[in-house]
Amino acid sequence: MSPIAPPQHTADPILRALITWATQALSLFLVGLVMPGVKVERLRDALVFVLFASILNAVFWHFFGRASFGAVLLAAGSGSILGNAILFYVASKFVKGVQLSGCITAFFLALFVTVLAWTMRTIIPF
């Protein structure tokens, strides 16, 4: 047996996906309340934004993930934050209720949303 066992998830995959989607949207909404350069009009806009960004992630990460895998490893995972920042910036151009002031803002938004959502997911047992 491995000394580090993978976490055992008791919830079904659909419920886990919905909880992840909700924590990402809530994280985006909360960060939008306090971070300058980020405007999230409503929680519904955050939900739509996260759904759209997830679709972009599913489509583009498949193609660019393999090409950038070495850079992600060398940069200790910060490459994935940069990839999410680019996806957030692109998604903000399509979702009207979420506005970002620029690329640097998108980078810090991706960083803060990732940390906050990860924290919430560790608190919520699923």
Structure explained in plain terms:
It is a single chain. The protein has 126 residues and is mainly alpha-helical. The chain has one domain (20-123). The chain contains five helices and two strands, in the order αβαααβα. Strands 1-2 form a two-stranded antiparallel sheet. Helix 4 packs across helix 5. The longest helix is centred in the middle third of the chain and has 25 residues, at 43-67.
Could you list some keywords that capture this structure?
126 residues, mainly alpha, two-stranded antiparallel sheet, 5% strand
Compact overview of the structure:
This protein is mostly helical and 126 residues long.
What is the percentage of strand-forming residues? Answer: under 5%
What is the end-to-end distance?
A: 24 Å
Structure annotation, total helices: 5
Q: How many beta-strand segments?
A: 2
Count of separate structural domains: 1
Which spans have pLDDT < 50 for at least 5 consecutive residues?
none
The residue fraction in helices comes out at over 70%
Biggest pleated-sheet summary: 2 strands, antiparallel
Q: What is the CA-based Rg, rounded?
A: 15 Å
